[in-house]
């Protein structure tokens, strides 16, 4: 078995262990149990739980980029809606437990610079992708050229972060957020010409 | 000393202990140390750390309502901006540590129904106040009557929640959110007539 396969197996086991135990109570033993490996084998690859979780955040980041980059659409408007949907819709059945574990990890960012660095990478990727779609839309006449693409992208990231937090805290579905975001894009970002065609 | 004073002292000590230790590592002993009371004295008032923290969330809720309800303004637009400012601007010096502790507690909501119940109360209060301001603004001609006040209020709560989460995760300031929210209100919610006068 190559190191790549072992790494992939440990990451998948970490995912399952986080869904089952949450972050606060997670131990290397929990991950070892899920992976069918010994704790010593895990420590051979990762010095500490902190190191393993940093690697896990990078693994999540890679998967997230793969899932969301290059979303399809006839124009920038459709790509923006598809991108927002890809972020709001989690691909797995354990999304509630996993979203909770991720919020627990987010709350540790001020104590764990390694977590903060990797979580910030997520937000930067999101903001960068959204900004690129918005700028392409200004370029091709889909979006209002008066818009500040950078600030607007940041605002959209804040909304997506808020929706993820609320899902954990109160169990609220993201449907109201999706509806309001779509309306925001349609009435706020589209040019009049595009609005007539698209909505 | 009345029970009211003791309760108030324990709540203030819990605040300081959360700022100093975060939620995950918080013990009854930490709170006792901050309050100058014995652990036994705390247990006389609260059966468990969970009970004490539920009481603490209620105490925070009362303070939050007191600080944000009845914000002043000439019209609904000014009241909306003042309300958003009151939520974004925390009144204390320990706001970073405290914001972190609150996010840790938010992430425990799925495991602790007592936390979820009280945190949902916060969100319901926020949504209710915002909806009332929006409806008053439609009534007095400040806001666009086409707006769905309930959905818009929920959307604003999501944005405020996202800003609080980002502040913890990446240490980002809330200024971009404040700017974009103000712009959203001005270009999205105001009637044309009000926009000319106010902006």
Automatic annotation (TrEMBL), chains A, B:
Gene3D superfamilies: Tetracycline Repressor, domain 2 (1.10.357.10). It comes from the Archaea. InterPro entries: BetI_C, Homeodomain-like_sf, HTH_TetR, Tet_transcr_reg_TetR-rel_C_sf. The keyword Transcription applies. Keywords: DNA-binding, Repressor, Transcription, Transcription regulation. Residues 27-46 bind DNA. GO terms for molecular function: DNA binding. SUPFAM superfamilies: Homeodomain-like, Tetracyclin repressor-like, C-terminal domain. Residues 4-64 form the HTH tetR-type domain. This is TetR/AcrR family transcriptional regulator. It comes from Haloarcula limicola.
